[in-house]
Amino acid sequence: MGERWRSGAFAARAGVTVRTVRYYDRIGLLRPSGRSEAGQRWYTERDYARLQHILTLKLIGLSLEEIQQVLATDVDSETMGVLLERQKRALKEQAAHLMQVAGMIEAAQEALQSSETIDLETIIQLIKAVNMSTQVNWLDQFMTAEQQAKISQSAMQRTLPEQRAFGMALRDLFRDIQAEQKHMWDATAVENLIRRWDALLASFAAEGVELQAWIEAAYSQLDQMPGMEQDEWVQELRAAAAFIQHAKAKRNVR
Amino acid sequence: MGERWRSGAFAARAGVTVRTVRYYDRIGLLRPSGRSEAGQRWYTERDYARLQHILTLKLIGLSLEEIQQVLATDVDSETMGVLLERQKRALKEQAAHLMQVAGMIEAAQEALQSSETIDLETIIQLIKAVNMSTQVNWLDQFMTAEQQAKISQSAMQRTLPEQRAFGMALRDLFRDIQAEQKHMWDATAVENLIRRWDALLASFAAEGVELQAWIEAAYSQLDQMPGMEQDEWVQELRAAAAFIQHAKAKRNVR
DNA sequence: ATAAATCCTGACGTAACGTCAGGGGCAAGC
DNA sequence: GCTTGCCCCTGACGTTACGTCAGGATTTAT
C-alpha cells in the first residue's frame, strides 16, 4: 500500500486538527513516515493505525506521556491483539462505571420525589462515585500487559552491566528514600523521589515473580551487597514502595 | 442542618483537592456559604449538592464555563429533578458510545486474527467513532432543558425594553454577519461573531416555537422594522445560523 | 505565470488545575 | 495564657494539550 497523505488531509480524514498532528510529531508520539525535501510531512496507513491507539488510549484517560510509554515499542501484529484486547476491556469497565453512576442518580431522583430533598450521605456517595473513574490509574492495565510481554521476551537478554546499572540506581534510590524519612518532609525532594521511582518502574516494571527475579539478578551484580539476604532486599523494596505510595497519596490530597 | 466545613475538610470528604475548591470559588462556580472574620471559607450541605452537579457535568464533558451557564440560576427541588434526569441520560448515552467503540475494537480483533492485518477503512472508522463523543456538544442537552424551563416560566415577564434590546442586538448581529460574508474571511472578526451569537443564545436560547415567539416579540418592538415580513426575518435567522454553523465547523478543522 | 490553498516553524494564549512562597488563624495540650 | 502543629489564606509561576496567529515557503489548479 503506497498511499500517503500530507498533514492536512491526514488530519481531516481522522477528524483531528492539524495542530494536534504537528504537536504529536513534535513530542515524538506520532512521527510522520517521511518528509519531503521542503520539509512537509507524509503520513501512511501505519500512521493511522498508531493514531487509533493514541486516540483510544486518550479516550480511556491516559496522558500523552503515558500513551508514549505504552507505545514505546513498535506494535506488531502479535502485540496489537493484546493491546486491542486491553483497550476493549478498559472501555467496557468505563461504560459499566458510567452506568453505575447513572443508577445512583436514579436513586437520588427517587429520594427527591418521595421527600423533596436528598440526604447528605447520598450526595457524598454520588460525588465519590463520579470521582472514581478519574482517579483510576489506567496506565497500570496497559503497562502490566506491555511490560509482561516485554519482560518475558527480553528478560534474559539484559547484559550484566545493564543489570548492575539498574541495581545501582535502585540501591541509590532506596538510600535516598531512607534519608528522606529521617528529616522533615520536603515536598520537592519527595517529588523527585517519586519521579525516579516511576522512571525505574517504567523501564522495567512488571509485577509478581518477574520483577523479583529481575531485581535479584540486578542486586547479584553489585559487589557492595555481599551480606544482604534475600529477605532484606525484599523488605527494602517493600519499605520503599510503601513510602512512595504514601507520598503519592499525600501529594494528591494536598 | 447546621453542619459546616472548612475548605480542607469539605474537599477531603468529596475527594477533590483544596486547590480545586478554591479555584471554583475564584471563578464563581462554587461559592462557599460563608466566610469567617479571618477570611476562611465555610461550606455547607447545599454546597455539596452543587458540587455533585459540577462534578457530574464535568464527567460528562462540559467545560467549567459551560457548567456555569447550566447552573446559572439556583437549583431548587423542582429543577433539580430535571437536571438529574438530564445527567442520567447523558451518562447512559456515553456508556452506550463506549460500548459501541468496544464492539468495533472486537471486530478489528477478529479481522486481525483471520488476516493478520486490519484494513485502512476499518481503522479510520474506529478513529472516527473514538472521536465522536469528544465532539458532541453536550451543553445543548442541558441548555435545552434549562432554557426551556426558564422560558416557560418567565417568557411573559420580559419587559418591552428588554425585548427591544434583544431585538436590536440580534439585528446588529445579523448585519455584521452579512457584512462579514461580503469580504475576505477574517478569523478574528468571525470568532467575535461566534461569541456574540453564543452569548445571545445562551441568554435566551430555546429551540422551536419558543425561540421564534420570542424573536417575533423582540422584533415587533423595533420601530425600524416596519416592512419586514415574518418570512423574511425567519430567513434572516436561518442564514445567520448557517453562517455561524459553517464558521464553527471551519474553526474546528483549523 | 498566477493565484489560491496548503504547508512550515515559532510564539503567545487558554483551561483547569498543581506546586510553591510567605504569612495568618485555629485548636489542642501543657 | 502560651506554644506548637496543623490548617487556612492570597499571590504567582508552572504544566498539559492544544488553539490561534504571524510570516514566509511550497504545492496545486487554472
- Give the helices and strands of chain A as they follow along the chain: HHEEHHHHHHHHH
The largest contact between protein chains, plus residue counts on each side, is: A-B, 58 and 57 residues
Report the major sheet of chain A. 2 strands, antiparallel
> What's the multimeric state?
homodimer
Our count of domains of chain A comes out at: 3
Helix run count of chain A: 11
What is the average of the pLDDT values of chain A? 74
Major β-sheet strand ordering of chain A: 1-2
User: Roughly what fraction of the amino acids of chain A lie in strands?
Assistant: under 5%
Task: Please report the distance between the alpha carbons of the first and last residues of chain A.
Answer: 52 Å
Helix content range of chain A: over 70%
Structural class of chain A: mainly alpha
Rough outline of chain A: flat
**Computed CA radius of gyration of chain A, to the nearest angstrom:** 23 Å
Low-confidence stretches of chain A: 148-164, 204-214, 216-231
Number of strands of chain A: 2
Summarize the structure.
The structure is a homodimer of 254-residue chains. By secondary structure, chain A is mostly helical. Chain A has helices spanning 7-14, 18-26, 45-60, 64-70, 77-115, 120-132, 139-154, 160-181, 187-204, 209-220, 230-253; strands at residues 34-35, 41-42.
